[in-house]
Amino acid sequence: MYRKSSIILLFLLLLVFSCNKKSDQADPAITEAIMEFMEGEVSINDKKAETGEKIENKSIVSTGENSFCEIVFDNKNIIKIQDNTLFKLDFSKVHKSIDLKQGTLISVLKKLAVLADSDSFTITTPAAILGVRGTSFFVKADPVATYICICNGIVTVSDAENNSSEIIKSKHHSGRLFTALATPTTQIKRSRK
Question: For the chain, how many structural domains are there in total?
């Protein structure tokens, strides 16, 4: 009887120890997003935002006239949102996403979670879908058109219906203009002087 009780107790201790070990490991789906800086009218989920505020993993962010903010997530990725911008973010999974309804955002993403054969970050606009694995880029969207400038890195860009796509690689800026009714209409390349 003593031996049987000792085995059960040992088993329970091993089980508790292994559960504690798993909880110490970081879950790649958990993201901490912080409103790092803001100026003017900025709201999160229809409430006035504050600098230093933690942003829920599923949130709606908007900026007013002459307003902007900077959101930092995972302590190393930054998104700068310009004025008159509205978007939904979903950082609840390893694959992060933003649904940009209108406005402008600039982003520097690095060391995103690596997903096998998949982009780690997606931005959807009314006219285009961007798949990102880590890069610097600029996106300006309205209900009719989306302008994308890849400042440095690689982005997969598709039209809104996901019918056609292309991989854009750039070291010094490469731009595309998408409209809600067509595939890329303009390619603009600029080199640094």
Answer: 1
Quick check: is 4 in a domain? no
- For 74, 95, 193, the CA distances from 24, given in Å and listed in that order, are 17, 22, 49
The DSSP symbol for 108 reads: E
How many Cα atoms occupy the beta-carbon half-sphere of 84 within 13 Å? 7
Full residue range of the structural domain in which residue 174 is found: 29-189
Judge whether 2 lies within some domain.
no
Instruction: Find out whether 174 and 166 touch, Cβ atoms under 8 Å.
Output: no
Per-residue pLDDT band at 151 (split at 50, 70, 90): confident
Task: Please name the amino acid found at residue 96.
Answer: K
Asked if residue 173 is part of any domain, the answer here is: yes
User: Would you give the DSSP letter of residue 15?
Assistant: H
CATH code of the domain containing 80: 2.60.120.1440
**Helices H, strands E: what count in the chain?**
1, 16
Asked whether residue 95 is assigned to any structural domain, the reply reads yes
Ordered alpha helix ranges (H), the chain: 2-24
The answer to whether residues 176 and 147 touch, using CB atoms and an 8 Å cutoff, is yes
Q: 76-100 pLDDT, tens per residue?
A: 888 999 999 999 999 888 778 899 9
pTM of the model: 0.73
Spatial CA neighbour of 146 closest among 126, 170, 119: 126
